[in-house]
Design goal:
With 269 residues, the chain is α+β, with helices and mostly antiparallel strands. It has helices at 5-29, 49-65, 95-99, 171-184, 194-203, 216-228, 242-245, 253-266, and strands spanning 38-42, 45-48, 70-73, 85-93, 106-113, 116-124, 129-134, 139-141, 144-146, 158-161, 187-189, 208-211, 232-234, 248-251. It is globular and about 50 Å long.
């Protein structure tokens, strides 16, 4: 189907308004999450009442404009209407940070059209930062164009990562990769929010980012931000199936390739 730049900008505007509305709830409850508001979905994987409220707000706003669009969101069953449009939503990325009062969390909203990422938006409520990208139109932070780092090697860059808490049986392999990256990079950071790690990579704060066993809503918006900011994003095999595999390597061309070589020396599958 034919989607115009005007259409894509409209989708981005809707995502922005939905994220801002959800952000009101996130800011209102930040630092006030009680034990009764927290449930454990799986070992060390938590959801709060605030996640659910944020998701309800985002979904309701999107559906009020596009009632037949499909929705894939973290805290509810996928809504499928055989649409060419798929909204991919993380209402609160960085839930563990949020629970403990650590200010490293965000809202992530992406839109796929006919299976291709077309729009991505990440909202950082406490700092009031909005990162957005539209396919073939570049990446922006608060309406100002952003680009990936000028660093060409890990030795001159900060590298971001996340721990594989969902599949701890690969921890030894992950730690070998982390050790090699640690020895090569200027520094390593683990922020606890994959979408923000990707946004910061798009902005040039991090030279690269890698993590495994993520979900589509963790990386969809951020991946588009990085590519539209001039970076490279692949899965651990160097392909484009990161939304399917959950394994992602992102960064500047040189740094992404450097990290990927380290990963492929350990993760052979």
């Amino acid at each position: 189907m034919q989607t115009t730049p005007h259409d894509l900008q409209n989708y981005c505007n809707i995502a922005r308004e939905a994220a801002l509305k959800a952000g009101v709830i996130l800011k209102e409850h930040f630092g006030k999450v009680s034990a009764s508001m927290i449930n454990e979905k799986a070992k060390n994987d938590y959801v709060t009442d605030v996640d659910k409220k944020s998701e309800d707000i985002i979904k309701s706003y999107i559906k009020s404009h596009f009632k037949n669009h499909d929705i894939l969101a973290e805290e509810s069953l996928a809504e499928r209407n055989s649409s060419e449009f798929l909204w991919i939503i993380d209402p609160l990325d960085g839930t563990m940070n949020y629970i403990h009062g650590l200010p490293g969390f965000a809202v992530s909203i992406a839109l796929e059209i006919e299976g291709n990422l077309a729009m991505g938006l990440i909202y950082e409520p406490l700092r009031e930062n909005i990162y957005s990208a539209i396919r073939e139109q570049g990446s922006f932070k608060n309406n100002n164009r952003i680009h990936v780092s000028r660093a060409e090697t890990m030795a001159s860059a900060l590298i971001a990562t996340g721990f594989p808490f969902r599949i701890k049986d690969i921890i030894d392999s992950y730690l070998r990769v982390l050790k090699d990256c640690f020895l090569r990079a200027r520094g390593i950071r683990r922020g606890g929010s994959a979408c923000l790690d990707l946004a910061y990579t798009a902005e040039g704060i991090f030279g690269g980012f890698f993590e495994c066993a993520l979900s589509p809503w963790d990386v969809a918006a951020g991946a588009l931000l990085v590519t539209e900011a001039g970076g490279v994003v692949t899965d651990f095999k160097g392909g484009s199936r990161y939304l399917k595999t959950g394994n992602i390597v992102a960064g500047t061309k040189g740094i992404q390739h450097e990290i990927l070589k380290i990963i492929q020396a350990t993760f052979t599958n």
